[in-house]
Amino acid sequence: AQLAESGGGLVQAGDSLRLSCVASDPKFSTYEMGWFRQAPGKSREFVASISWSGENTYYAGSVKGRFTISRDNVKNIVYLQMNSLKPEDTAVYYCAPQPEGSLPEYDSWGQGTQVTVSS
């Protein structure tokens, strides 16, 4: 797999988690990258993205102010710091290059990492 997500877990509402997306191919350091999530019974949705340089970031309205995306292009890792977690953040989280990950035909998803937030 070219992208491997990790860092998920079971936490309580209000807790924090930091997810990591490790890229096996250095080429990803030149890509805009995004985090997505899929909750049970729901479609996958965009969470956040970051430009290749890290200068520009974008967030879904539901996570803005609580989540922070960042990257380390030397280590080929993209992070998602999640604070003030809510039960509605429960989902499997995936990373993908952008804009490909936002396209319906994108099918190179990794196994993702499960985040479960209890109330």
Entry keywords:
48% strand, globular, 4-stranded antiparallel β-sheet, 119 residues, 6-stranded mixed β-sheet, 10 strands, mainly beta
Break the fold down into its secondary structure elements and pairings.
Elements: E1 3-6, E2 9-12, E3 17-23, E4 32-38, E5 45-50, E6 57-59, E7 67-72, E8 77-82, E9 91-98, E10 113-118
Parallel strand pairs: 2-10
Antiparallel strand pairs: 1-3, 3-8, 4-5, 4-9, 5-6, 7-8, 9-10
General form: globular
Total number of beta strands = 10
Low-confidence residue ranges: none
The computed structural class is mainly beta
Mean pLDDT: 96
End-to-end distance, in Å? 34 Å
* Helical percentage: under 10%
Query: What is the overall number of helices?
Result: 0
Element pattern in H and E: EEEEEEEEEE
Question: What can you see in these coordinates?
Answer:
By secondary structure, the protein is mostly beta strands. The chain is built from no helices and ten strands. The chain has a six-stranded mixed β-sheet, with no helix packed on it. It has a four-stranded antiparallel β-sheet with strand order 1-3-8-7, with no helix packed on it. β4 (32-38) and β5 (45-50) form a beta hairpin. The N and C termini lie far apart (34 Å). The mean pLDDT is 96.
Please provide a brief summary of the model:
The protein is mainly β.
